[in-house]
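Inverse folding, one chain.
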C-alpha cells in the first residue's frame, strides 16, 4: 500500500500516544490475574469520552436509573446459590482465562510483544521456535472475549497482541493495520480523515486480526462477515515462514485463515477496506414478529440504508411477540461531521439496567417499553463511526456468582419463524436468565472453510446470565444442544467463539468442511504447534 506520512497512526500499549480518552485497567480483566508476562503490562486506547451520549447509547440506556429503582420493587429475586456446588476456581500455577470466566487453563508462558511490522515477525518467530523445540502449542489473542478457550493454548505459550500501527491509503480506500489493533484505535485513526471501517464487530474492544480469525460480522449492510472486507494479510506460519495471503496470492491459506481461529498462522497485519464516514438518521418500526423477516430484508436490501438491526422482546410470558426494527440512512447534509464519540456514562447505566433484568420479568417488560417507546422518541442523528464506537460494558456483570454467556445462531430468513418456535419451546424452561436478542444480517461467505453463513442469514445474537454452579452449567449445556439440534434441522448453524457446549456431531453438521480444514491445517502445521481448545475439543479428532 502507498504510505502517506500524515496518515500513519501509532497507538502503543501502554499508550504514549492516544486518540482520546485514558487507558482503562479494567479492559483486560477477561484474562486471568495469575499471568507470567515476559514483556510488560497491557493498556488500551479508549475513544469514548465520559459524559458524551450517543444515540445508540441513548436507545439502550434511557430510563436506566428509573428502571433500576422500579425494578428492585418488582424483583422476585434469583435462586440462592448457597449450598450448591460452585464451579471451582483454578488454583496454583500459571493460568489464563477468557470472557466466560469458566475456561481457565494452565499455560507455560503469556507473552505480550510490544512490536509491529518486522519486529512483530521476529517476536512471533522466536516464540514459535521455542514451541517447536519444546513441543508445546502456541495461540495468539487480543481481548480474549471468546468464551470457550478459542485463544488459550493449554500448557503452551499464549501471545497477546495489543499494539496498533495504522497506515491509511485514501486512494485505495483501504488501510493496513497491525493485527493487534483494537477497533477503537482504527476508528480514532480513520475518523479525523472522514473514513470508517467497512465492517467491524458491533463493539470496539476487539482486535482486528481476532475479528478476522473468528469471521465476525457487524451491523453495516449489506455486508457479509468482516473477512469479506480484508484484501490481504501477512502471517507467520508454524515453521516461521512469513507469507502474504489474499484471494489471488496463496488463496488456500487465505481461506484457512479467514474464520480459522488462529490455527493456521500468527497474523502480523492486514489490508482492510474502509468507507466514507457519514451522518445518519434513525428510523424505528415496531411490528409483530411474524412480519419481521420481510421488513428486515427489505431494509437490508434498500440501497438507501447504511446500518440495520432488530430486537425482540424477551419476557417469558410473551416471548418473541414483538419486534423492533432499527435502520439508519444518510442525511442530506453531510458537511462538518462531528468527531466520533462514545456513550460514556450512559453505557454504564445501560449495563446496570441490562443486568437488573435477571430474575425480574417486569424489568424485562420495562426495558422493552423504554427501548421500543421512549428511546425512539428522543433519538436523533449520529455518525457512522459514533454508532460503532461502543464498548462491551453490557457483558461486564459485577455479580461474582453469575456469568454472562452469549449464543449466536445463523438462520436462513425463510426459516426464521421455525427458529423462534424452537426458542419458545426451549428457552423459558432453562435455568439461565435470558436477557437480550439482537438480530443482524450476514451476507453469504463463499471463502472461509469454516463458514457459518454459506448463504445469507439472519444472525440472532442471544445473551444469557447463569450461576457459576455445576447445575447451571449442565443445564445451559442441555439448552444449547437442544437449540443447536433445532437450528440444524432448519438449515442453520451456530457460532464457534462461545461456550463449547455443542456435541462433536453437531459441530460436524454445522461446519461440513471442518474435516477439510483439519486436513489442510495438518499439511501446513504437521507438528500441530498452533492449537487452542477449539482444535483440542472438536477438530483434533477429524
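Residues assigned per position:
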Amino acid at each position: 500500500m502507498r504510505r502517506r506520512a500524515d496518515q500513519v497512526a501509532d497507538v502503543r500499549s501502554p499508550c504514549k500516544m492516544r486518540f482520546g480518552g485514558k487507558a482503562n485497567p479494567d479492559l483486560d480483566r477477561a484474562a486471568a490475574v495469575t499471568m507470567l508476562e515476559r514483556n510488560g503490562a497491557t493498556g488500551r486506547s479508549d475513544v469514548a469520552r465520559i459524559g458524551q451520549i450517543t444515540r445508540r447509547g441513548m436507545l439502550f440506556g434511557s430510563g436506566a436509573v428509573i428502571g433500576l429503582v422500579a425494578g428492585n420493587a418488582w424483583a422476585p429475586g434469583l435462586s440462592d446459590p448457597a449450598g450448591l456446588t460452585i464451579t471451582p476456581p483454578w488454583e496454583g500455577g500459571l493460568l489464563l482465562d477468557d470472557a466466560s470466566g469458566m475456561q481457565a487453563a494452565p499455560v507455560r508462558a503469556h507473552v505480550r510483544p510490544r512490536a509491529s511490522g518486522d519486529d512483530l515477525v521476529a517476536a512471533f518467530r522466536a516464540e514459535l521456535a521455542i514451541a517447536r523445540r519444546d513441543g508445546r502449542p502456541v495461540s495468539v489473542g487480543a481481548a480474549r472475549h471468546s468464551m470457550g478457550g478459542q485463544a488459550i493454548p493449554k500448557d503452551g505459550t499464549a501471545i497477546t497482541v495489543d499494539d496498533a500501527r495504522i497506515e491509511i491509503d485514501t486512494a485505495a480506500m483501504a488501510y493496513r493495520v497491525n493485527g493487534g489493533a483494537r477497533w477503537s484505535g482504527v476508528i480514532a485513526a480513520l475518523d479525523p480523515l472522514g473514513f470508517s471501517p467497512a465492517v467491524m464487530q458491533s463493539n470496539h474492544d476487539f482486535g482486528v486480526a481476532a475479528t478476522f480469525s473468528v469471521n465476525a460480522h457487524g451491523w453495516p449492510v449489506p455486508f457479509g462477515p468482516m473477512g469479506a472486507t480484508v484484501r490481504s494479510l501477512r502471517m507467520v506460519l508454524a515453521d516461521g515462514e512469513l507469507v502474504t495471503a489474499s484471494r489471488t496470492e496463496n488463496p488456500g491459506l487465505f481461506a484457512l485463515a479467514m474464520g480459522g481461529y488462529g490455527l493456521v498462522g500468527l497474523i502480523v497485519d492486514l489490508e482492510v477496506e474502509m468507507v466514507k464516514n457519514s451522518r445518519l438518521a434513525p428510523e424505528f418500526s415496531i411490528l409483530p414478529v411474524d412480519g419481521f423477516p420481510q421488513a428486515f430484508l427489505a431494509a437490508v436490501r434498500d440501497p438507501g440504508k447504511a446500518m440495520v438491526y432488530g430486537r425482540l422482546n424477551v419476557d417469558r410470558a410473551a416471548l418473541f411477540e414483538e419486534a423492533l426494527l432499527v435502520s439508519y440512512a444518510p442525511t442530506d447534509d453531510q458537511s462538518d461531521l462531528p468527531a466520533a464519540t462514545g456513550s460514556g456514562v450512559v453505557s454504564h447505566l445501560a449495563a446496570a439496567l441490562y443486568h437488573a433484568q435477571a430474575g425480574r420479568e417486569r424489568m424485562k417488560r420495562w426495558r422493552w417499553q423504554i427501548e421500543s417507546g421512549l428511546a425512539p422518541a428522543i433519538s436523533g442523528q449520529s455518525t457512522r463511526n459514533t454508532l460503532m464506537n461502543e464498548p462491551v460494558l453490557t457483558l461486564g456483570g459485577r455479580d461474582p456468582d453469575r456469568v454472562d454467556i452469549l449464543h449466536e445462531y445463523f438462520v436462513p430468513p425463510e426459516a426464521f419463524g421455525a427458529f423462534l418456535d424452537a426458542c419458545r419451546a426451549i428457552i423459558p424452561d432453562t435455568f439461565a436468565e435470558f436477557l437480550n436478542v439482537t438480530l443482524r444480517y450476514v451476507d453469504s461467505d463463499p471463502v472461509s472453510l469454516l463458514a457459518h453463513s454459506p448463504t445469507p442469514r439472519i444472525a440472532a445474537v442471544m445473551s444469557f446470565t447463569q450461576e457459576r454452579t455445576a447445575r447451571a452449567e449442565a443445564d445451559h449445556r442441555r439448552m444449547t444442544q437442544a437449540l443447536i439440534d433445532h437450528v440444524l434441522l432448519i438449515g442453520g448453524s451456530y457460532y464457534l467463539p462461545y461456550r463449547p457446549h455443542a456435541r462433536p456431531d453437531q459441530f460436524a453438521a454445522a461446519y461440513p468442511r471442518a474435516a477439510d480444514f483439519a486436513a489442510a491445517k495438518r499439511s501446513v502445521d504437521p507438528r500441530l504447534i498452533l492449537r487452542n481448545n477449539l482444535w483440542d475439543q472438536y477438530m483434533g479428532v477429524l
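The first strand starts at residue 8 and ends at 11. The chain has 15 helices and 20 strands.
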